[in-house]
Protein backbone atom coordinates (compact mmCIF):
# COMPACT_ATOMS: atom_id res chain seq x y z
CA UNK A 1 0.00 0.00 0.00
CA UNK A 2 1.28 3.44 -0.92
CA UNK A 3 2.01 5.68 2.06
CA UNK A 4 1.14 9.35 1.73
CA UNK A 5 2.18 12.10 4.12
CA UNK A 6 0.88 15.64 3.68
CA UNK A 7 2.80 18.33 5.51
CA UNK A 8 1.38 21.77 6.19
CA UNK A 9 0.60 24.06 9.10
CA UNK A 10 -2.49 23.84 11.30
CA UNK A 11 -4.65 25.79 8.87
CA UNK A 12 -6.94 24.83 6.02
CA UNK A 13 -5.24 27.28 3.67
CA UNK A 14 -3.28 25.82 0.80
CA UNK A 15 -3.65 22.20 1.94
CA UNK A 16 -7.38 21.76 2.45
CA UNK A 17 -8.18 21.06 -1.20
CA UNK A 18 -5.64 18.22 -1.04
CA UNK A 19 -7.21 16.84 2.13
CA UNK A 20 -10.63 17.00 0.48
CA UNK A 21 -9.34 15.03 -2.49
CA UNK A 22 -7.91 12.32 -0.22
CA UNK A 23 -11.22 12.12 1.62
CA UNK A 24 -13.22 11.92 -1.60
CA UNK A 25 -10.99 9.12 -2.90
CA UNK A 26 -11.20 7.35 0.49
CA UNK A 27 -7.43 7.00 0.63
CA UNK A 28 -5.63 7.10 3.97
CA UNK A 29 -2.82 9.59 4.52
CA UNK A 30 -0.83 11.15 7.33
CA UNK A 31 -2.03 14.71 7.87
CA UNK A 32 0.98 16.36 9.49
CA UNK A 33 0.14 19.84 10.76
CA UNK A 34 2.73 22.16 12.27
CA UNK A 35 1.85 25.16 14.40
CA UNK A 36 1.76 28.11 12.02
CA UNK A 37 2.96 30.52 14.70
CA UNK A 38 6.02 28.37 15.34
CA UNK A 39 6.64 27.92 11.63
CA UNK A 40 6.89 31.68 11.13
CA UNK A 41 9.81 31.75 13.56
CA UNK A 42 11.96 29.49 11.38
CA UNK A 43 11.09 31.02 8.02
CA UNK A 44 14.28 33.08 8.13
CA UNK A 45 16.40 29.93 8.16
CA UNK A 46 16.39 28.50 4.60
CA UNK A 47 16.14 26.15 2.88
CA UNK A 48 12.53 25.52 3.80
CA UNK A 49 9.97 23.13 2.34
CA UNK A 50 7.45 24.79 0.03
CA UNK A 51 4.39 23.75 1.97
CA UNK A 52 2.11 22.10 1.45
CA UNK A 53 4.12 19.19 0.23
CA UNK A 54 3.30 15.57 -0.24
CA UNK A 55 5.67 12.69 0.41
CA UNK A 56 4.93 9.40 -1.34
CA UNK A 57 6.42 6.24 0.21
CA UNK A 58 9.05 8.38 1.92
CA UNK A 59 10.75 9.07 -1.41
CA UNK A 60 8.89 11.22 -3.90
CA UNK A 61 8.23 14.77 -2.68
CA UNK A 62 5.83 17.10 -4.49
CA UNK A 63 5.17 20.69 -3.44
CA UNK A 64 2.77 23.45 -4.53
CA UNK A 65 -0.95 22.87 -4.16
CA UNK A 66 -1.78 22.62 -7.85
CA UNK A 67 1.06 20.17 -8.53
CA UNK A 68 0.03 17.91 -5.65
CA UNK A 69 -3.61 17.98 -6.73
CA UNK A 70 -2.80 17.21 -10.35
CA UNK A 71 -0.57 14.30 -9.33
CA UNK A 72 -3.25 12.84 -7.06
CA UNK A 73 -5.84 13.47 -9.74
CA UNK A 74 -3.83 11.24 -12.07
CA UNK A 75 -3.44 8.56 -9.40
CA UNK A 76 -7.07 8.56 -8.23
CA UNK A 77 -8.80 9.00 -11.58
CA UNK A 78 -9.71 12.64 -11.08
CA UNK A 79 -7.88 14.15 -14.03
CA UNK A 80 -9.19 15.35 -17.39
CA UNK A 81 -9.53 13.40 -20.63
CA UNK A 82 -7.92 15.53 -23.33
CA UNK A 83 -4.60 17.34 -23.61
CA UNK A 84 -6.48 20.63 -23.96
CA UNK A 85 -8.56 20.03 -20.84
CA UNK A 86 -5.51 19.07 -18.81
CA UNK A 87 -3.67 22.18 -19.98
CA UNK A 88 -6.58 24.45 -19.06
CA UNK A 89 -6.92 22.86 -15.62
CA UNK A 90 -3.19 23.33 -15.09
CA UNK A 91 -3.47 27.01 -16.01
CA UNK A 92 -6.24 27.50 -13.48
CA UNK A 93 -4.24 25.65 -10.85
CA UNK A 94 -1.30 28.01 -11.29
CA UNK A 95 -3.66 30.98 -11.27
CA UNK A 96 -5.09 29.86 -7.95
CA UNK A 97 -1.59 29.52 -6.51
CA UNK A 98 -1.03 33.13 -7.58
CA UNK A 99 -4.35 34.37 -6.23
CA UNK A 100 -3.56 32.93 -2.80
CA UNK A 101 -0.23 34.74 -2.77
CA UNK A 102 -1.89 37.98 -3.85
CA UNK A 103 -4.42 37.68 -1.01
CA UNK A 104 -1.75 37.33 1.68
CA UNK A 105 -2.39 40.83 3.10
CA UNK A 106 -5.91 39.68 4.00
CA UNK A 107 -4.79 36.31 5.33
CA UNK A 108 -2.01 37.80 7.45
CA UNK A 109 -4.39 40.39 8.90
CA UNK A 110 -6.63 37.51 10.00
CA UNK A 111 -3.82 35.35 11.36
CA UNK A 112 -1.43 37.70 13.13
CA UNK A 113 -2.48 40.12 15.87
CA UNK A 114 0.20 42.64 14.93
CA UNK A 115 -1.35 42.96 11.46
CA UNK A 116 -5.03 43.10 12.39
CA UNK A 117 -5.05 46.87 11.92
CA UNK A 118 -4.65 46.22 8.19
CA UNK A 119 -7.80 44.11 7.93
CA UNK A 120 -10.28 46.72 6.69
CA UNK A 121 -7.85 48.03 4.12
CA UNK A 122 -7.03 44.50 2.95
CA UNK A 123 -10.73 43.80 2.42
CA UNK A 124 -11.52 47.04 0.62
CA UNK A 125 -8.47 46.92 -1.64
CA UNK A 126 -6.81 43.51 -1.97
CA UNK A 127 -9.91 41.33 -1.55
CA UNK A 128 -12.10 43.50 -3.74
CA UNK A 129 -9.53 43.65 -6.53
CA UNK A 130 -8.18 40.09 -6.47
CA UNK A 131 -11.25 38.10 -5.49
CA UNK A 132 -14.25 40.06 -6.70
CA UNK A 133 -12.94 41.94 -9.73
CA UNK A 134 -10.45 39.40 -11.04
CA UNK A 135 -10.96 35.79 -9.94
CA UNK A 136 -14.76 35.78 -9.73
CA UNK A 137 -15.25 37.52 -13.07
CA UNK A 138 -12.93 35.11 -14.88
CA UNK A 139 -14.14 31.99 -13.08
CA UNK A 140 -17.81 32.82 -13.62
CA UNK A 141 -17.11 33.03 -17.35
CA UNK A 142 -15.10 29.80 -17.30
CA UNK A 143 -17.85 27.75 -15.65
CA UNK A 144 -20.54 29.27 -17.86
CA UNK A 145 -18.63 28.60 -21.07
CA UNK A 146 -17.65 25.08 -20.00
CA UNK A 147 -21.34 24.27 -19.77
CA UNK A 148 -21.18 21.17 -17.58
CA UNK A 149 -21.21 22.76 -14.13
CA UNK A 150 -17.60 21.68 -13.61
CA UNK A 151 -14.57 23.93 -13.98
CA UNK A 152 -13.06 22.07 -16.93
CA UNK A 153 -14.40 19.12 -18.89
CA UNK A 154 -17.53 17.10 -18.29
CA UNK A 155 -16.74 15.44 -14.97
CA UNK A 156 -15.39 16.13 -11.51
CA UNK A 157 -11.63 16.63 -11.52
CA UNK A 158 -8.88 17.86 -9.22
CA UNK A 159 -9.33 21.48 -10.27
CA UNK A 160 -12.89 21.43 -8.90
CA UNK A 161 -11.46 20.67 -5.46
CA UNK A 162 -9.10 23.62 -5.62
CA UNK A 163 -11.69 26.12 -6.87
CA UNK A 164 -14.44 25.04 -4.46
CA UNK A 165 -12.16 25.26 -1.45
CA UNK A 166 -10.69 28.60 -2.56
CA UNK A 167 -14.16 30.11 -2.93
CA UNK A 168 -15.42 28.63 0.34
CA UNK A 169 -12.39 29.82 2.30
CA UNK A 170 -12.60 33.38 1.04
CA UNK A 171 -16.36 33.62 1.44
CA UNK A 172 -15.96 32.67 5.10
CA UNK A 173 -13.21 35.24 5.61
CA UNK A 174 -15.30 38.12 4.24
CA UNK A 175 -18.86 37.09 4.99
CA UNK A 176 -20.52 40.30 3.82
CA UNK A 177 -19.07 40.08 0.30
CA UNK A 178 -21.80 39.97 -2.35
CA UNK A 179 -21.45 36.88 -4.55
CA UNK A 180 -24.99 37.05 -5.90
CA UNK A 181 -23.71 38.28 -9.27
CA UNK A 182 -21.71 35.07 -9.66
CA UNK A 183 -24.41 32.36 -9.74
CA UNK A 184 -22.28 29.80 -11.58
CA UNK A 185 -19.58 29.99 -8.92
CA UNK A 186 -22.15 29.61 -6.15
CA UNK A 187 -23.81 26.66 -7.88
CA UNK A 188 -20.45 24.93 -8.33
CA UNK A 189 -19.51 25.48 -4.69
CA UNK A 190 -22.85 24.17 -3.45
CA UNK A 191 -22.65 21.12 -5.72
CA UNK A 192 -19.14 20.31 -4.54
CA UNK A 193 -19.81 20.53 -0.82
CA UNK A 194 -22.85 18.28 -1.16
CA UNK A 195 -20.77 15.39 -2.52
CA UNK A 196 -21.70 12.41 -0.30
CA UNK A 197 -18.08 11.25 -0.15
CA UNK A 198 -17.21 14.41 1.80
CA UNK A 199 -20.13 14.45 4.24
CA UNK A 200 -18.42 12.88 7.26
CA UNK A 201 -15.18 14.79 6.83
CA UNK A 202 -16.93 18.14 6.50
CA UNK A 203 -19.09 17.40 9.52
CA UNK A 204 -16.12 16.61 11.75
CA UNK A 205 -13.26 18.71 10.43
CA UNK A 206 -11.57 21.27 12.63
CA UNK A 207 -12.62 24.84 11.91
CA UNK A 208 -9.33 26.69 11.56
CA UNK A 209 -8.86 30.46 11.46
CA UNK A 210 -8.02 30.22 7.78
Structural class: alpha+beta
Strand adjacency order, main sheet? 2-1-3-4
Largest sheet: 4 strands, mixed
Roughly how much helix do the residues carry, as a percent range? 55-70%
What is the number of beta strands? 4
CATH class of the largest domain: Mainly Alpha
Count of separate DSSP helical elements: 9
Strand content: 5-15%
Distance between the termini: 32 Å
CATH fold title of the largest domain: Glutathione S-transferase Yfyf (Class Pi), Chain A, domain 2
Kindly report the average pLDDT value.
94
The 3D shape can be described as globular
Q: Return the domain count.
A: 2
CATH architecture of the largest domain: Up-down Bundle
- Would you list the SSEs in sequence order as H and E? EHEHEEHHHHHHH
Question: pLDDT under 50 segments (min length 5)?
Answer: none
Q: Based on the structure, what is the oligomeric state of the protein chains? A: single chain
The radius of gyration over CA amounts to: 17 Å
Topology:
Elements: E1 4-9, H1 16-25, E2 30-34, H2 36-41, E3 53-56, E4 60-63, H3 65-76, H4 83-102, H5 104-111, H6 119-146, H7 158-173, H8 183-192, H9 199-204
Parallel strand pairs: 1-2
Antiparallel strand pairs: 1-3, 3-4
Helix pairs in contact: 1-3, 1-7, 3-4, 3-7, 4-7, 5-6, 6-8, 7-8
GO molecular function: glutathione transferase activity
Domain GST C-terminal: 82-210
Protein name: Glutathione S-transferase
